[in-house]
Amino acid sequence: MNEFILQTKDLVKIFPGTIALNHVSFSVKRGEIRALLGENGAGKSTLILTLGGVHQPTSGDIFFDGEKIEFHSPLAAKEKGISIVHQELSLLPDMSIAENIFANRQPVGRLGFVNDKELDAEASKMLKLFNMEDIKPSTLVKYLSIAKQQAIEILKALSDDPQVLILDEPTSSLTNVEKELLFDNLRILKEKNIAIVYISHHLNEVFEIADTMTILRDGHNVCDAVVKDVDENFIVSNMVGRKIESTFWDKETKQAESEYFSVKGFSRKGSYNDVSFHVKKGEIVGFAGLIGSGRTEMARGITGIDKKDDGAVFLEGKELPITSPSDAMDFGLGYVTEDRKKTGLFLGFSVRENIISNKLKRFTHRGFVNDNEAAAFSTQFIEDFGIKVKSQADLVSSLSGGNQQKTMLAAWLSSKPKVLIIDEPTRGVDVGAKRDIYNILKETAEGGTSIIVISSELIEVLGVSDRIYVMRQGQIVGELTSEEATEESVIALMAGITGTGKEA
């Protein structure tokens, strides 16, 4: 039996104009959890897509259990025992949970018809792995939350009984409880001698679950290490090729007027109830809470995307009659959505077109866009925000996640909003891009814009916020200053443990 179940030697993958993998040697043992780390664009996705048979290597070799092998299709890799859970969901929304988990592998009877009873029984066994046995296997996937859909995607891969399981950002939509269940199951798989490749931008997860790590940078393998022998600074400096200073900054109490922007009595049945809060001019206010606590729904109500049942929004003491997103924009409110690909960007358009999308009137004359003016305007934001592009004409869909996120921020900040609501500001971006985005938020607030940050990353909320509101079950249950806010105090409020912080 070979020491490594999966191994590459001098793997090269060249796309037109780009060397995505440059002589990468990578390996994982049976019963090992190996983290695969690197900034967006480092080559992680190309490597796993090559291991999964989606891409063919330009040169170099892949070995499976010591045998040199070529995967000419994803099916060939899967049949060999490699299962990949991609960051983007691949479920069929109009099919049931059971049908998705066992797609193209449903049990059939003698006449060739699907045995629904056996199918549901097998799916029920899989659902128990995530304590989801209360959900019927016949439930259509489209009726599940994003977190539950992510869990189904993982169960689908586990149902193949893989020898190698590759997970790309598997916790991006999971709650803390679901994440811990995932980790428990990964440890069980490890004990069963399954090899696991774990990709994540969350370094705390790497230290919690991984045994070893491989770090890629610019298509190169820059180092391999044992997790317990290194610290976060080691990982970050190897990922970005330079030392990154402290991610966050010291907070100063804002002396400006307390009621610059305020929301009072905001309610929507089934989503949020009697929500009231305020933001000072130039202040960053964080909203913490579990998934489903009503934070995003509240933001969508404030900016006119969804209808509210009751409540009012005030800016500089004046009530804003917002009935649509265009009203919100006209009054100086911006909303950066949590889902950049579905609702935040025009993926089929260029970086320039996205940046000017909220200010088209400024660059349009008699129905035509003045390209020179638009180019000059976009250049400034591309440079200021550090958006890595070959040309302004590059499609946004071709950018890394971090550069897409910066483009979306540029599009909103180009309109100079008085209040910016940003939902999950660094979801799916690497540590270098996170630092850049935090700096953008800090500088924007220093320029006088009031910012509301909604984030599921507690460290992020604590790090960027001057004050924090905590929501639970659609209501604000506490307000904390930056001095009062700790992981323990915020979690206590999120979980409903009384006696911590100021009641809102």
What is the structure about, briefly put?
By secondary structure, the chain is of the alpha/beta class. It is 33% helix and 25% strand.
Describe this structure in words.
The chain has about 500 residues and is an alpha/beta fold. The protein has two domains: about 5-240, 3-Layer(aba) Sandwich (Rossmann fold); about 260-345 and about 420-495, P-loop containing nucleotide triphosphate hydrolases (Rossmann fold), CATH 3.40.50.300. The protein has 18 helices and 22 strands. The chain has helices at about 45-50, 75-80, 95-100, 115-130, 145-160, 175-190, 205-210, 230-240, 295-300, 325-330, 340-345, 350-355, 360-365, 370-385, 400-415, 430-445, 460-465, 485-495, and strands at about 5-15, 20-30, 35, 60-65, 65-70, 80-85, 165-170, 195-200, 210-215, 220-225, 260-270, 270-280, 285-290, 310-315, 320, 335, 365, 370, 420-425, 450-455, 465-470, 475-480. The strands form five sheets. The protein has a six-stranded mixed β-sheet, with helices on both faces. Helix 15 runs parallel beside helix 16. It is globular, with a radius of gyration of 24 Å. The N and C termini lie far apart (about 60 Å).
